[in-house]
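quick one if you have a minute, typing this from the bus. theres a chain ive been looking at and ive put its sequence and its fold in C-alpha cell form underneath. please have a look and point out which stretches look like helix strand or loop to you. anything you notice is useful, everything is just below.

***
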Amino acid sequence: MRPSTLVSDSTWTAKVAEHLSGFEARPGALRVFMRNPLAVLGILILVVFASMVIAHPLLMATLWEGEQGVYDPVTGYDAPIIEKTVVVDVTDPETEVGLSVARLRDITTSVGDIVEIREQPASPSGTHWLGTDTFGRDVFSMLLAGAWPTFVVGAAAAVVSAAVGILMAVGSAVFGRRTDRILSRLSDVLLLLPAPLVMVILAGGTTGDLLTPFRFGVFYGILAGGSTVAIVLRSHALATVERPFIDAARVSGASGWYLAWRHLVPHLVPLAAVAMVTSVVGAVVAHGFASWLAYSDDLTNWGAMMFVAVGFSSLQPVFPWGVLISGAVAISLFCAGFYLTSLGLKDVAFRGHVGRRPGWTGIQSSRATTIV
C-alpha cells in the first residue's frame, strides 16, 4: 500500500474520531443556555411566579393570620368607607354618587345629602397593595392565589404533550411503515382540532365541571402532543434513524425497543423540551380564556379575575381597571417567561448542528480522493 494512502486513511480515521467525539467537545448545555439573555430573562420571570406560589400560603399563615376574612382570595371582603355627595348626574365619581345608587341603600336619601359609601373596587393602599375588586376582595391575594392553578395547568400540559409527542415519533421511526402510517393519520386528524379551541368548547359544555386545572392540562397536552409536537418530533426522529450509529446498532442485533430508548429518545428530548414549553403557553391562554368566559369552576384563576372585572363592572360606578390589568399582565408575563425560556432550550437543542454536514462531506471527499 502506498504511503500516501496510509496517511490519507489515518487522516480520515482521525476526522471520523473527531466527529464521533463532537458531543463531548460541544459547549455545555448550561453555558449555551446562559448565553441567550432572553432565555435568562424568561427564567427570572418564572422564578418570580414560582415565588408567588410559595408566598401566598406563607402570607396567609403569618402576615395575614387572623385576617382571612379580609385576604381570602374567594370569600375575603374589605371595602373602605368614604363619604360622597348625592347628585343627579355624577361628574366626579371620587366624591359624588348618583341618586338612584344612593337610594338603593336608603330610600329616604335626597340630592345634596352626604352618605357613607363602601368603596368597591377600592384604589391601591397600604392595606391593599393592588386595591380590591368589585366584591371587595384583595387583588394582590387573588393574584398570588392564581399562580398555583396556572402552574398546574402548564406543567400538566408540558409533560403530557412531550410524552405523547415522543411516543408517537419513536413509534413512527422505529416500528415500521404501517405504524408510521397510522400515527401520521392520527396526527393529521388531531391537527384539524386546535387544542385551545377544543378545550374552550369542552370547558363550556357539560364536561366543564369535571375539568380541574390538572385535567385541563392533561387533555390539552394530549391534543397538542398528538398533533403539532408529534409531527415536529417525527421528522427529527426519521432523520435520526438514518444516521450511521443507528445502522451500526441494528447490525449488532439491537432491538427496536433498545434503539428507541437508548439512542432515539435522547436525541428527541431537547427538541421535545422546546415543544413542551410552547404547549404551556397555549394551555395557560386557553385556560385563562375559558375562565374569562366563566366556563371554569376555578375561582382563583387569573382569567376568572378578568371575567369578574368585566362581567360585574356595572354594579359599581368605577370600572375595576386594576383587577383587569393585573390578570391580563399576569397571564402575559407568565406565557412570556416560558416562551423566552424556550429560546434558550432551542439553542441547546441545536447546538453543534452548524457545520456538521459540511464536515462529513469533507471526510467523504478526502477519502474518495485518496482512493482515486
Observations:
- Confidence is low (pLDDT under 50) at residues 1-9, 12-25, 354-372.
- The longest strand covers residues 81-87.
